[in-house]
Amino acid sequence: MASSSSYTSPCAACKVLRRKCIPGCIFAPYFPPEDPQKFANVHKIFGASNVTKLLNELLPRQREDAVNSLAYEAEARVRDPVYGCVGAISFLQKQVERLQKEVDSANSDLFQYACNEIQSSLPAPPGVNSVHPMGPTRQRHEGGGFYQTPSSFQFPYSTLPWNEDNSGGGGGGNN
Question: Among residues 16, 40, 87, 145, which one has the fewest Cβ atoms lying within 10 Å of its Cβ?
Answer without folding.
Answer: 87
